[in-house]
Specification:
- By secondary structure, this protein is mainly alpha-helical.
- It contains two helices and no strands.
- It starts with a helix and ends in a 7-residue tail after the last helix.
- The model has no long low-confidence stretch (mean pLDDT 84).
């Protein structure tokens, strides 16, 4: 069983939270422009500037 499945099973048994919270979602959302730039740079083989 994968670690995520065991985490989910534990959360169901104990009533603990499972998954990202709002703070995590905000952090990930802020990373999207950076991730898009990395993907674009990898595709084109050239530098992509954030701005």
């Amino acid at each position: 069983m994968s670690p995520r499945c065991t985490d989910l099973a534990r959360a169901i048994r104990t009533g603990d939270d499972f998954g990202p919270d709002f703070t995590t979602a905000v952090r990930v959302h802020r990373l999207h422009p950076l991730l898009d730039a990395v993907k674009s740079s990898a595709r084109s083989g050239s530098r992509v500037w954030l701005g």
